[in-house]
Specification:
The chain has 287 residues and is mostly helical. 75% of the residues lie in helices and 0% in strands. The chain has one domain (2-122, 151-237). Helix 7 packs across helix 9 and helix 7 runs antiparallel to helix 12. The longest helix has 28 residues, at 209-236.
């Protein structure tokens, strides 16, 4: 009976994680249409929009939004800290390389899970699968592009953002249990901090009704529902398997962009698909 329950939870976690990954894959496509909006303004408004998802989840009971201060600090560390450092990275490093360094976070989840979570042992097979997955992600992100040589200071905040998202994802499983709706409070505080950064770091920008509708879609999807799904998945499944599945994000994002542009995926995308899916299958079997 326990093994049946564990398997059911594992399938449920996989489905929830894939839901979050599918939503994150739409982020780049939506962002293309909002490229003229300053990133902190965009993130702040989207996070505030996404926080509203917590209302029906909590049955409009605001008490479910309340968490101890250390837990709230952890949530803001994850949602705001990740985006803040990633935007800084994009200012000081080439976008493709910064994005590539940022996608170390699934690999870090696999490496850090046995250290931060109880009941998980370190296995080289998981590490190997994660490295294969990262190779696939690198192929999907870089493709046939020539990468700029040399070091850029932006790589440091990109690596830090990857560490923040990986550690946040794992540490939420170490603190006292909190309702899924409490992600709404993380998003509200992070959204307000992002708007504060916009005031001090970015020029004022006028938004059209189309911009506001797209920002609402961004908030309800990749910067909203995805965070709730991600939290629910981690509470039910093996973080190492979920980390391996996360390498699908850059692959699906690239495929969606190609489809919207009417372009055909090349051999690099096919290779990325084989590497990432292979890594995910290895990780699932190891479970």
């Amino acid at each position: 009976m326990p093994s049946t329950t564990s398997a059911t939870h594992g399938r449920s976690a996989t489905g929830l994680a894939l839901g979050a990954i599918a939503l994150w894959a739409t982020l780049a496509s939506l962002s293309v249409s909002l490229a003229h909006v300053p990133p902190f303004l965009l993130t702040g408004l989207a996070l505030l929009s996404g926080s509203l998802i917590a209302l029906p989840l909590s049955g409009f009971d605001m008490r479910q939004w309340r968490v101890p201060l250390p837990t709230l600090a952890l949530g803001v560390y994850g949602l705001f800290g990740y985006h803040f450092l990633f935007f800084i990275a994009l200012r000081y490093a080439p976008a493709v390389q910064a994005n590539l360094v940022n996608y170390l976070w699934p690999l870090l989840i696999v490496l850090l899970a046995p250290l931060l979570l109880r009941g998980l042992s370190f296995r080289w097979a998981h590490v190997l699968a994660a490295c294969v997955g990262f190779a696939g992600a690198a192929l999907a992100i870089a493709g046939g592009k020539s990468l700029d040589a040399g070091f850029a200071w932006g790589y440091l905040p990109a690596a830090a953002s990857a560490f923040i998202w990986a550690s946040y994802s794992l540490l939420t499983q170490r603190v006292a249990h909190f309702p899924n709706a409490a992600i709404g409070s993380f998003a509200v505080v992070s959204g307000l901090l992002s708007l504060l950064c916009h005031v001090f770091l970015e020029p004022a920008t006028a938004l059209s009704w189309r911009d506001l509708l797209l920002i609402a879609a961004l908030g309800l999807g990749p910067l909203g529902a995805a965070f709730f799904l991600w939290d629910a998945a981690l509470k039910r499944g093996d973080a190492r398997v979920i980390g391996l599945l996360s390498f699908l994000t850059p692959l699906l994002s690239t495929l969606l962009l190609l489809w919207l542009r009417g372009e055909t995926p090349g051999l690099s995308i096919l290779g990325a698909m084989l590497l990432i899916v292979g890594a995910a299958l290895i990780g699932t079997r190891l479970r």
